[in-house]
Specification:
0% strand, 58% helix
C-alpha cells in the first residue's frame, strides 16, 4: 500500500484530541490508524448485516444446534 502523509497542521486539533481520548490513543498516527480500522470494521459489519437481512446466508446452520 502506498504511504500517505497527512499534514497535521490541516487536521482539526479539537477533533483529533477528542478522537484520541475516545480511542485511547496517544499519537496522531495511532489515532488516525485506529479510527480508520474502526470505520473499516463498521463497514464490514454493515455488509454482513445487509447480507443476513437479504437472506444470502440462509444456508448457514441454526446457531441453536
Amino acid at each position: 500500500m502506498a504511504r500517505t502523509v497527512i499534514d497535521v497542521d490541516e487536521v482539526d486539533d479539537r477533533l483529533l484530541r477528542v478522537a484520541a481520548e475516545e480511542l485511547g490513543t496517544t499519537t496522531a498516527e495511532d489515532t488516525v490508524n485506529e479510527a480508520l480500522r474502526q470505520v473499516a470494521a463498521r463497514a464490514a459489519q454493515r455488509r454482513i448485516m445487509a447480507g443476513l437481512e437479504a437472506g444470502i446466508h440462509d444456508e448457514l446452520p441454526d446457531p441453536e444446534f
